[in-house]
Amino acid sequence: MSLYTTYGSNPDFENDGVWYKATTTEDGREVKFLLARMGGANKRYEIAAENAAKPFRRSIRKDTIRSEKAREINMSAFVNGCLLDWQNVDDENGEPIEFNKVNASALLKKLPDLYEDLVDIATSREVYAEEGVEEDSGN
């Protein structure tokens, strides 16, 4: 197997995203997230990360930034650079949540394990290979 087969990725998938199936609701709807790659050819993420970190460069450079602030910066970069859309996402009362950046940030703050799972998918090179992958976490 060549290096390109092993490590190559599809820049269209990296930029336009791939759908990740996180779970299925009790009524059978698939909860999905459209994720662009966190890195690779995704320049939108690079710009979002730079913008999120800009006000805190000094603290980052001196390694004095608090872990909570670093997580907030990373989440902002993820929401603005990688999370492109979702389907069938409901609140705790079963009401649909419209996709937008404010709602996405609020949801990921309330469900930090979901955030961690989505970051894991967005950083996985296998997901953005030529064939692409639709994951199911099994939740």
Outline of this structure?
The protein is an alpha+beta fold. The protein is 45% helix and 13% strand.
Features of the shown structure:
single chain, 139 residues, three-stranded antiparallel β-sheet
Number of helices: 7
Which bin fits the share of residues in helices? 40-55%
Could you say which structural class the secondary elements and strand pairing correspond to? alpha+beta
Main sheet summary: 3 strands, antiparallel
As a whole number of angstroms, the C-alpha radius of gyration is 16 Å
Uncertain regions spanning at least 5 consecutive residues: none
Within the largest sheet, what's the order of strands?
Answer: 1-2-3
Number of strands: 3
Mean pLDDT: 91
- Specify the overall morphology: flat
- H/E series, N to C? HHEEHHHEHH
% residues in beta strands: 5-15%
Number of structural domains: 1
Distance between the termini: 34 Å
Explained architecture:
- With about 140 residues, the chain is of the alpha+beta class.
- It has one domain.
- About 45% of the residues lie in helices and about 15% in strands.
- The protein is built from 7 helices and 3 strands, in the order ααββαααβαα.
- It has a 3-stranded antiparallel β-sheet.
- A hairpin with a 5-residue loop joins strand 1 and strand 2.
- Helix 3 runs antiparallel to helix 5, helix 5 crosses helix 6 and helix 6 packs across helix 7.
- The longest helix is centred in the middle third of the chain and has 15 residues.
- It is flat.
- The relative contact order is 0.21.
- The mean pLDDT is about 90.
